[in-house]
Amino acid sequence: MGDILLIEDEPELADFVVRGLSKEAHSVDHLPRGDDGLQRALRRKYDLLIVDRMLPGLDGLSLVKTLREKHCRVPVLFLSNLGELDDRVLGLNAGGDDYLPKPFGFSELLARVNALLRRPVLEAELTVLRLGDLEVQLVKREVRRAGQEIDLKPREFTLLEYLMRYSNQVVTRTMLLEGVWGYHFDPKTNIVETHISRLRARIGSDMIQTVRGSGYMIHASRTNP
Ligand code: CA
Q1: Tens of pLDDT along 16-40?
Q2: What does residue 106 show for φ and ψ, rounded to 5 degrees?
Q3: CA distance 21 to 110
Q4: CA of 218 to the centre of ligand 1 (A)
Q5: What gap in Å lies between CA 202 and CA 150, rounded to an integer?
Q6: Ligand 1 centroid distance, CA of 56 (Å)
Q7: What pLDDT sits at residue 118?
Q8: Res 123 pLDDT > 70
Q9: Strand positions, DSSP E, 39-157
Q10: Residue 4, beta-bridge partner list
Q11: How many angstroms separate the alpha carbon of residue 7 from the centre of ligand 1?
Q12: d(CA 40, CA 210)
């Protein structure tokens, strides 16, 4: 199923993860050092990286930051003893896609792994997303509509990027909470709605459609009835 690279220095935990995921028909390579892990991830195309935060040679955050700087977009699941919120945010800001605090149960790991593997396959070198006259530069983090630059706050940018990756498809509130905010629970606030309306105010209200009872969909501008 998935081609996975695990970068983890605790032998027992690594063994547990490798055996468990292999049983689920994933193919898992394991390296205990951060510097070796980075080299391998740059050389070989994996479907998913599972990266411990504290590693010999190179720490997990620096490893993933370096991958992202080199435009490697492979999904990353961080593992860490540092389960505090700040650390989680650091991990996600460094370019991680999800974060699993230790200790964790295997079923939880498997659920996160499968969720990350189900995401649409991204071109490794993809740096620009385009939809109609809207253009999003992922590396420079610039947004233009009809050539006009639009200023977005970091979270608005992430939200727009997420919608663009699923353009012309319905994106649910749950997907946005997970993909944009990293929440695996419903915070029972209108955080999604608020950011959608801010984003509409900035890019123009004609592109992001509310799909009643389902979520949102971004599409190229068309005349609304
Ligand atoms: Ca470690």
Answers
A1: 999 999 999 999 999 999 999 999 9
A2: -65, -40
A3: 7
A4: 40
A5: 7
A6: 8
A7: 84
A8: no
A9: 48-52, 76-80, 98-101, 128-131, 134-137, 142-145, 148-150
A10: 28, 48
A11: 9
A12: 42
Identify the pLDDT of residue 84: 67
In angstroms, the CA 124 to CA 141 distance is: 17
Q: What's the CA-to-centroid distance between 1 and ligand 1, angstroms? A: 26
Q: State the distance from the centre of ligand 1 to the C-alpha of 54, rounded, in angstroms.
A: 4
Cα 191 to middle of ligand 1, angstroms: 34
pLDDT at residue 186 tops 50: yes
Helices H / strands E in the chain, number of each? 8, 12
Average pLDDT, integer, range 1-9:
95
Please identify which residue in the block is written with the tokens 């189900």.
Answer: 118
Extract the tokens encoding 147: 């050539």
pLDDT at 225 over 70: no
Task: Report the pLDDT value the prediction gives residue 34, as an integer from 0 to 100.
Answer: 98
Average pLDDT value for residue range 165-170: 86
Find the 96 Cα to ligand 1 centroid distance in Å: 16
Q: What is the mean pLDDT of the chain?
A: 89
Spacing, Cα 39 to ligand 1 middle (Å): 18
Q: Would the pTM of this model clear 0.70, i.e. be above it? A: no
What's the CA-to-centroid distance between 8 and ligand 1, angstroms? 6
Cα 64 to ligand 1 centre (Å): 15
